[in-house]
């Protein structure tokens, strides 16, 4: 009985170490799905309505087993999705959002649907909206990003 416990613990240790190794080296082994991190800066207009000042982008990734879904609504919010190469194409990403609370900076992670991952030199077209507490669009703009 004592040997069974030792083998069980050794097996769990080996499984844990190999899982951590795959997680840490997911990009090298092609086990990572692309993601895009948007840093959105906002401000208020002279009339007191919100607006987007600046958007910066950072390519990132998530492990292949990470559950990617639409962000549930939490009004008021800043939301975005991505389309590839054409504005009238179907969304290539899930809806991503951050709760809008009047601060000046928000970070939003955009995850792509399976089979719709961007390729090198694809143009991402991203409508960015600020919605009010009722869900009405208070401000809308479009950002463009060339996937590297």
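^ Assign residues to that structure.
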């Amino acid at each position: 009985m004592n040997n069974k416990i030792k083998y069980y613990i050794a097996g769990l240790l080996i499984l844990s170490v190999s899982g951590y190794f795959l997680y840490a080296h997911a990009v090298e082994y092609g086990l990572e799905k692309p993601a895009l991190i948007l840093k959105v800066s906002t401000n208020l207009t002279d009339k007191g309505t919100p607006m987007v000042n600046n958007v910066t982008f950072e390519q990132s990734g998530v492990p292949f087993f990470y559950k990617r879904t639409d962000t549930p609504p939490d009004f008021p919010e800043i939301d975005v999705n991505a389309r590839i190469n054409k504005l009238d194409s179907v969304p290539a990403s899930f809806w991503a959002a951050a709760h809008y609370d009047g601060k000046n900076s928000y970070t939003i992670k955009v995850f792509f649907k399976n089979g719709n991952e961007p390729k090198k030199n694809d143009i991402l077209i991203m409508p960015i909206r600020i919605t009010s507490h009722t869900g009405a669009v208070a401000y809308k703009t479009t950002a463009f990003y060339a996937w590297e």
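The chain has one helix and eight strands.
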